[in-house]
Amino acid sequence: MNFIKKSFSTILVVCTIGILVSSCGVSKSLKNVPDVSNYSLEKPERIKISDTSYSTQNGFLNKNKFGQWELYVKGNPMQLGLATGALTQELFHKQENALLSKVDEMVPSKTKQYLLRKFLAWFNRKMYLNINEDFKAEIYGLAQYASPKYQHIAEPYPRILYLHGAHDIGHALQDLALVGCSSFAAWGNKTEDGKLIIGRNLDFYAGDTFAEDKIIAFIEPDKGHPFMSVTWGGMLGVVSGMNNTGLTVTINAGKSKFPLVAKTPISLVTREILQYASTIEEAIAIAKSKEVFVSESIFVGSAKDKKVVLIEVSPKNFGVYTVENQNALVCSNHFQSAAYANDEKNQKHIVESHSQYRYERMEELLEENPKVTPKIAVDILRNKEGLDNKKIGYGNEKALNQLLAHHGIVFKPEELLVWVSANPYQLGEFVAYDLNTIFKKKSERLLPKQLANTSLSIAKDTFQFTTEYIKYEAYRTLKSKIEKAINQKEKVDLQLFKELQNKNPEHWETYYFSGKYLYEQGYLRAALLEFNKANTKEITTLVDQENIDQYIRKIKRKIDT
User: Fold this and answer.
1) How far is CA 332 from CA 211, 253, 372, in A?
2) Does the N terminus or the C terminus of the chain have fewer Cβ atoms within 10 A?
3) Please, are residues 170 and 176 in contact by the beta-carbon 8 Å criterion?
4) What DSSP string describes 184-220?
5) What is the pLDDT of residues 155-192, one digit of tens each?
């Protein structure tokens, strides 16, 4: 959520203009509700079996032994929304609080919070015009269980509608500093049995609380294909999922211009693909029919087509990327299709960000593992080193495993198998689910039961039991403490910087933080020493590198004069 603070001056300007010219459109948006006259709005009875198990007429929620919540719901759009809301209401409130409390943390000023709310209302004024009516009805049902705590932000329905664009809005306001996802696929002679295998990390981070309660959702709509997705409370869109025909979708953000209006959230584009497509051609047709407001790569795998493609969408461009005479495809956070070959923003992003580095690391690991299996795919997602196995510090965004992922996931579409990581990060078990058995015909009332196929689960990463992991977790806590003190202009004991470096010695940031603090305190020679140490490490982006180089030049000028 750092985008709120970093981009607030932009928000204030855009908001002021927007309020002046579009108040009518904002009012219509906030007052709009979908036509739900054909649905029963009666809330379902929820039966509590235990603190971790609930059921309704149309579904159940159960926490498995790996700490993951398994949700199964079926019915028409309103039934899906109401059942999901009834079953997950505590998780829904927790996630809504995790996201929206960040606003209070990053923007403590009540005046600025007011302006931020005005901006979001203006920014989202056309979103409702670009969303499938069935999805709006489903969100309306879900919104009946929204937290009453945030009425001051917006009424439940428009508020939950807006939260479905949280990924896109974060993207728009910060160009995805929150997200650095990595995806790959292998098939044919690149896998042990020739069948398609897809792996991805979703590195969307909105605080530790946000990542605590993953929901593995199994949705059986009255129209379209049943499907599974990895989600969180209050989210009906799809960021990673597979349907019962073996079509898979994941999303990887690209470089975007700042949009002036929200249209279709990308997670609802992928939800529609998953629910209504069974082939790559059908997926492309759905994506092409939508107006989006950020740039995104939609990684689509297909059991029927036995291959994968990248559908690359942006507000003013559309491309499809596939590989010829190869049996592997990788995707990070830049576009690869011919449609974006001359896109200056995309080319600049390749040079300045860590996207190309992770892309090359995936290629390197696939080359090292000529016959991919689900276990090898998991090992790749868990990899914490840089190119040539270089130690680059735990949590470095150049790593595939940045130790902050919401989830890692592996698909085997032709067998309808999927593995989803349990906490922490991608280090817990990768829990297996078999869609062949999960979507069999159910009795009239769904009874809670474990949906995971424990015999196929992939074991925990032993890294979480090491001294290095314990030190990394301590590093994260200490880093947060130091950053908070610096932001509040407080004095920091210099010994804390030494502790930070000892806990994660290969990460460039540990030296950058101490260098910056020493510089601001006037200890120029000591600061120069720290910046020079940072320069010996693997620095994440070109912007970070230039920032360090600028400090070094300024210090040298001051010392020489």
Assistant:
1) 21, 8, 19
2) C
3) yes
4) EEE-GGGBSSS--EEEEEE---S-TGGGS--EEEEEE
5) 899 999 988 887 777 666 554 344 568 999 999 999 99
Half-sphere exposure of 72 (CA within 13 A, CB side): 24
Amino acid present at 431: V
3-class SS string, 108-122:
CCHHHHHHHHHHHHH
Please tell me the distance from the alpha carbon of residue 502 to that of residue 301, in angstroms, as a whole number.
Answer: 43
Element holding 476 (H helix, E strand): helix 467-487
Contact partners, residue 5, CB within 8 Å, separation at least 6: 106, 107
Q: How many CB atoms lie within 10 A of CB 456?
A: 15
Average pLDDT of the residues in 471-500: 93
Which pLDDT score, from 0 to 100, does residue 356 have?
A: 96
Amino acid at position 125, single letter: R
Model confidence, pTM = 0.92
Tokens 């709310």 belong to residue:
117
Residue with tokens 């960000």: 353
Distance from C-alpha of 23 to C-alpha of 556, rounded to nearest angstrom: 53
What string of H, E and C letters represents the secondary structure of 274-300? HHHCCCHHHHHHHHHCCCCCCCEEEEE
Whole-angstrom distance, CA of residue 243 vs CA of residue 226: 6
Beta-bridge partners for 50 = 53
Contact 369, 380 (CB under 8 A): yes
CA end-to-end span of the chain, whole Å? 41
Q: How many CB atoms lie within 10 A of CB 476?
A: 16
Three-state DSSP string of 298-362: EEEEECCCCEEEEEEEECCEEEEECCCCCCEEEECCCCCCHHHCCCHHHHHHHHHCCHHHHHHHH
Closest CA to 179 of 501, 406, 458: 406
Maximum Cα interatomic distance, the chain, rounded to a whole number of Å: 83
Cβ atoms < 10 Å from Cβ of 278? 18
For 353-398, the pLDDT digits (tens) are 999 999 999 999 999 999 999 999 999 999 999 999 999 999 999 9
Structure tokens at 414: 């032709």
Residue with tokens 């897809």: 198
At 105, the amino acid letter reads E
Return d(Cα 82, Cα 77) in angstroms, integer: 9
Can you read off the two tokens belonging to residue 397? 């965004």
**Local confidence band at 520 (pLDDT 50, 70, 90 cut-offs):** very high
**Of 86, 85, 77, nearest in space to 221 by CA:** 77
pLDDT at res. 442: 57
Extract the tokens encoding 549: 């180089």
Residues paired with residue 298 on neighbouring β-strands, in sequence order: 251, 311
Asked if 63 and 70 count as a contact pair (C-beta separation under 8 A), the reply is yes
